[in-house]
Amino acid sequence: MTSDRPLHLAAEIASGAGPDAARRTLALARLAEAAALDFLTHDDTFAGPGLDALAVLARIAPETRSVGLVPTVTTTHTEPFHVQAAVATLDWVSRGRAGWRIAVSPTGAEARLVGRRPAPPTAELWQEAGEVAEVSRKLWDSWEDDAEIRDVTTGRFVDRRKLHHVNFQGATFSVKGPSIVPRPPQGNPVTVVDATGPAARDTAAHHADVALISAASAEEAAALRAELHRGARAHGRDPGQLRVLLSSTVDLDVYEGGAGALAELIAGWHGGGAVDGFHLVPAVGERDLERFTSETVARLRERGLFRTDYEGTTLRDHLGLARPVSQYAKAGASA
User: Fold this and answer.
1) Can you tell me the distance from the alpha carbon of 229 to that of 48, in angstroms, rounded to the nearest whole number?
2) Nearest 5°: phi and psi at 5?
3) Which DSSP string do the residues of 184-246 spell out, in sequence order?
4) Less crowded by CB within 10 Å, the N or C end of the chain?
5) CA separation (Å) from 83 to 75, 115, 129, 321?
């Protein structure tokens, strides 16, 4: 890589429902991995039919080697404890390549599907989503890295002094902990937030490792990136640990100038500091992802802007993000 600030590339691979959906999704994942993309997202929602994103990517994990896997997970009608355990499990089965894209379910129709409560206002849902992100980090940290003993002779599986109750109290839920899943390989799987809507922006600034934005110009993208960095700093975070990617639906058969022009746009916006990378949502999955990986990515490599192969093994490695130390180990807390 010739750039001091690496370019990050990702893509959406959800291929709908149907008997061959898993096969088509796996084919897309392998295509993206061959191009050394940082990660893949798989969208999910209660608002329409489709396969469960977490389950699909858990199925794909053993069939891939390096690419990051990021399912969309709604926090509105799901139990935070179960959500974090599922994401931690994906990190284990993928050997440290998991993330999750936090989403909310704001409609009354979605609420009626589950039948637990009416849908609160969107702003409240994003506040709750932030609390789910916070308690998830606490639960992932509730096992210190060396908590597992696995001593056959004594029959001791875990050092209970290195398991911690999180005792979290949020506005709509509480969690005692600890988690039932040992600390994930990445410490904390990568948190992705779609910050294209203003209601989600503070949650992204506070909790996201990767924020997705939408912008019509490099100037607009730069302003959104600066806003997210200011928000991160206000929450006591290092803005340098937040990656901001432009997320855009692209049809490479009508995109003016085709795959080459898209490469120029990505290079220009990244080089000018507007974004840290690009998240492709293909208008037509197989066609557009194939052209993106074979043409756009190839042109970016010719300019020395994107890797030719993976340089690490985890999603945090791909994104240049440090593996966090357990907050309980740092504090020297006792169970």
Assistant:
1) 34
2) -115, 100
3) PTTSSPEEEEE-SSHHHHHHHHHH-SEEEE--SSHHHHHHHHHHHHHHHHHTT--GGG-EEEE
4) N
5) 8, 19, 11, 22
Q: Which of 114, 51, 35 is nearest to 77 (CA)?
A: 114
Please state, as a whole number, how many other Cβ atoms lie within 10 Å of the Cβ of residue 257. 11
Please report where in the chains the tokens 């557009």 appear, as a residue. Answer: 288
Percent above pLDDT 70 for the chain: 97
- Alpha carbon distance 219, 217 (integer Å): 5
DSSP string computed for 321-334: -PPPPPHHHHHT--
Q: How far is the C-alpha of 250 from the C-alpha of 254, rounded, in Å?
A: 9
Q: What pLDDT sits at residue 331?
A: 66
Is the entire prediction scored with pTM above 0.90? yes
State how far Cα 124 lies from the chain centre: 21
**The token pair that represents 136 in the structure block:** 């998830």
Q: Which residues, at least 6 apart from 78, have a Cβ–Cβ distance to it below 8 Å?
A: none
The percent of the chain in helix, strand and coil, each rounded to the nearest 5, is 40, 15, 40
Q: If 0-12 CB within 10 Å is exposed, 13-18 middle and 19+ buried, where does residue 172 land?
A: middle
Q: CA 155, 157, 158, 160: dihedral to nearest 10 degrees?
A: -40
- With residue 59 as reference, give the H or E element that holds it: helix 53-60
Predicted local distance difference test score (pLDDT) of residue 1: 39
How many Cα atoms are found within 13 Å in the side-chain-facing hemisphere of 152? 0
Which position has the higher pLDDT, 1 or 226? 226
CA dist., res. 132 & res. 116, Å (int): 17
* C-alpha pair distances (Å), 46 with each of 13, 105, 165, 237: 18, 7, 31, 32
Is the Cα torsion angle 82, 243, 276, 30 positive or negative in sign? negative
Q: pLDDT tens for residues 70-82?
A: 999 999 999 999 9
